[in-house]
Amino acid sequence: MTGSMGDRPGLVSVDSPEFARQLVRTATDLASLVGTNVQLASIITKPATSLFAMFRDEIIIEQFAPTAKDLTEAMTIEELVDGEVDHDILVSSSFDNGALSAIERTDPWRTVIGWRERRTTTEAIFGTSIDRIVKPVPCDLYIERIGYETDGVDSIRVPLTGVEALRQVGLAAKAIALPNEAAVYLLAFNESDRTTGDSPGDIEVATEMIEEAKGQKVTFETVIEPGPVRAGSIIEMAPVHDVLIPVTSRHGPIRRRVTGSVHHRVIQQVDKTIVLARSGTTHSARFEPIRRGHRRR
Amino acid sequence: MTLTFWIFVGLATVTCLFMAWSLGANSNSPPFAPAIGARAVSTIRAAFLVGILAGVGAITQGGSISATVGQGLFYDTLITPLAATTGLLIAATFMALGVYTGYPVPAAFATTGAMIGVGLSLGGDPSIGTYRQIGTFWVLVPPMSGGIAFLTATLLRRDDIPETVGIPLLAAVVGGVLAHIRLGVIPHPERSQGSIAELFSNWLGSPHLFALDVPLVLTTIVFGAFGFLYVRRKVRASVERGIQSFLLILGGIVAFSSGGSQVGLATGPLEQLYGIELGLPSVFLLGIGATGILAGAWMGAPRLLQATSREYAQLGVRRSIAALVPGFIIAQMAIALGIPISFNNIIISGVIGGGLAAGTAGVSRRKIAVTIVFWLITLGASLGIGFVLYRLFSTVLGIE
């Protein structure tokens, strides 16, 4: 990573016009808060097995990408994206490779991508595109569950379930709360035997982010639940909120799932807008040389 | 037969089913995509037809390639249960890696490479002539497929040849070839598969005139004439509906051929295990492969068909037909010669050839080079891993 937050844009990568609006909205909310530009990346996927994968990228975009025009129109929404907007169309063998290429080209401070819950058999075995992006991304990452866009936001719940990405969840909460004049509710768990940090500390970091970020103050409230992190508590409180902002919390060496068991249960049972946050500083560079070679295809 | 033997039989059968499922989900469905793109059939109905036709093609036509993969790569070498299982596991792993990484990994290269590797490790006597034949065919597939597609697209693009003539002419060619496709259900005095033309010829005593087998020629003409007249009647009534009908028929025939040409990649490694060790007829093994292909097509094809039909719609019906015709002809040539092939490679070459007829191929040299490199890596790596892994398993388990 090079440069400071102000020099580097926020990136949003999309492969389907259907959900472009939802993701661009989140990206512009974040960009407005920190005062950076938004870079749009439309990803046209052509797997290696596609009959059209052998064509040059410009031919694919012109002739064999029926969604390219719709995607471009859907992403450059005037009421959301003001001023100069850089829009790039990339052809890639998969969404994750395309999104990683966009990050490599743009060097963004943060990236917003979408995540569908529906899994094919192959995805269930090998993981989704998003699972593959989570670990190697060298910037802050926001993964929004698509298909659950809310009309208005009055209330945002931020469950603090670890010590990672506290600043990122705080920033996202304020970015979404400000234009909607919504209230933010932090939820922490006070687990006495924790060794890597305690709940008050977690709350301090997230609170600091919400208070110190640019823009007007937002209303926020904190709840501390005694005992270990419980999915049940988060699920119980979810219905009264419009948006949930948890932290992406799990990564294994073989299959990197987006969420750990707690948030996995929450996501399955909560019918709300969910934006997962992950800190760019936690990524591992172990497989980076292999992935770099792959992305350049 | 020991417990270990049955464990290997079970493991190998499950791997075979996985391979066939994967082939059914990926390789067998594209032939129907142009018909969906032209709104001749719905996606779900197409997926249903793909499963049935590819499954039937696998049972009736799959025997020749399966026999080459399982018995034709070495002289007088018994592929043991451990060797068959190792070869299949390697091929399946390569295919899974292809899905996971997005790299182009052709099943034909992975299976053939793995089986040669384990066979060499077994101390088998390699059938160099067969390797030469397979290698030559693989090298010739892109120019053959591209060339046939180029000719087909050129014919369809000519203004002086109306569609009421051009499309029926192609139907005549397809009909003529159909008379010669080899099916397991048609008896032949020397082979396990015979064609309809050969059946008539043998039935009539193979009379010759000027060195030509008369019944063979007449059957070809009758089939060709039937194809021409049937499609011409449809095209004359309505060009759009006539083309839709031809795309549907062609898609069905190509899906059938793809089943026959692909199932051997999953069942071939088990030929000796099922045929010699278990004493089961080859149709039993082909039935397992056909079941996997059918399941793969029904479960995986709708999603793939939806994606590729949109692309074919952009490609246009002429180039779609131009890509499918060589797919059918080359797949049938491969079946007749018993050569394992990658069906996607044929179709991709056809799409490029059809593009050349329109003035520009528009292909990326870099992408082609990367793809060829990966094909070669797949072949070499599967061979090397097959050799080493079989030796390792054999040493560790203490069995051959």
Report what the structure shows.
The complex is a heterodimer of chains A (297) and B (400). Chain A has 297 residues and is α/β, with parallel strands linked by helices. Chain A contains 11 helices and 10 strands. Chain A has helices at 20-34, 57-63, 68-75, 95-106, 121-126, 129-134, 166-180, 199-212, 231-237, 261-269, 288-295; strands at 10-14, 38-45, 86-92, 110-115, 140-145, 155-160, 183-190, 220-226, 243-244, 273-278. Chain A has a 10-stranded mixed sheet with strand order 3-2-1-4-5-10-9-6-7-8, sandwiched between helices. In chain A, helix 1 (20-34) packs across helix 7 (166-180) and helix 7 crosses helix 8. The model of chain A is unreliable at 194-199, 252-256 and 282-297 (pLDDT under 50). Chain B is mostly helical. Chain B is built from 16 helices and 4 strands. In chain B, strands 1-2 form a two-stranded antiparallel sheet. Chain B has a two-stranded antiparallel ribbon with strand order 3-4. In chain B, helix 7 runs antiparallel to helix 14. The A-B interface holds A 47-57, 59, 63-66, 93-94, 97, 120-122, 126, 294, 297 and B 26, 30, 96, 98-104, 299-300, 303, 307-308, 310-315, 323, 344, 347-348, 351-352, 362-364, 367-368, 370-371, 374.
